[in-house]
Amino acid sequence: MATVTLDDITHVYGSGDDAVTALSDVSVRADEGEFVSIVGPSGCGKSTLLYLTGGFLDPTAGTIAVDGDPIDGPGTDRGVVFQEYALYPWKTAMENVTFGLSHVTDLDAEAIESRARAELARVGLEGDADKYPTELSGGMKQRVAIARTLAYDPAILLMDEPFGALDDQTRELLQEDLLDICTETDRTSLFVTHDIEEATYLSDRVIVLTAQPGEVKTVVSVDIDRSLPRDEVLRTDAFLETATEIRSAVHEELVIGSGH
Length: 260
What we know:
Layout: E1 4-13, E2 20-30, E3 35-39, H1 46-54, E4 61-66, E5 69-70, E6 78-81, H2 93-104, H3 109-122, H4 138-151, E7 156-160, H5 168-185, E8 188-192, H6 196-202, E9 205-209, E10 216-221, H7 230-233, H8 237-258
Parallel strand pairs: 3-8, 3-9, 6-7, 7-8
Antiparallel strand pairs: 1-2, 1-4, 4-5, 9-10
Domain ABC transporter: 4-236
Protein name: ABC transporter ATP-binding protein
GO molecular function: ATP binding
């Protein structure tokens, strides 16, 4: 478990007349075991915020820390799952997981294979370890990508619209699986999505960013009973009221961004 904090983050792409401010004075915190989603209009800096947290970009101003220690580039304490699966097509599901694991741990080959099998089983692919990406559906490929990230045991999961390219049924199944995984492993999660219902269903808190440049418009706490079946959760007053609050905040920014 870990806490990640972003304090007064500003990020500017380019310089001079070509400078574009993606984020301005953004402060975000995700506590140990907390699931925090980030939503907002297109171009508000959601993905930029995630890449900064992953250490793939350096902020123009502000600090990012894990458990109080400033980050310095990518690290195994932060695992990233992208919308694109980025699997090696010439490697099996098992080999895709073990390949990444072998580069970030000092485990021996037997331990690496054992952990990879365990993570593939965790995402429901224990019987598909020897299949190649061309033999897997989109949902199964994303499960492999998630297993590959979980295998090196990051304290923090960073997810950039990981289910955005999937059909509705597969997306719903993976949302439920992700909830189970996060509950079971108690990992801290930052999740970027444009889907309000998805953010509400998965999150402890939802951060709404303003239209460009992205600033924190509001933070919405989510208090819903996830012990109920999914269909019942989506019909509860708590879920509907929370989703409406988030949607209204995003809509206000869409209107501002369109100039109306």
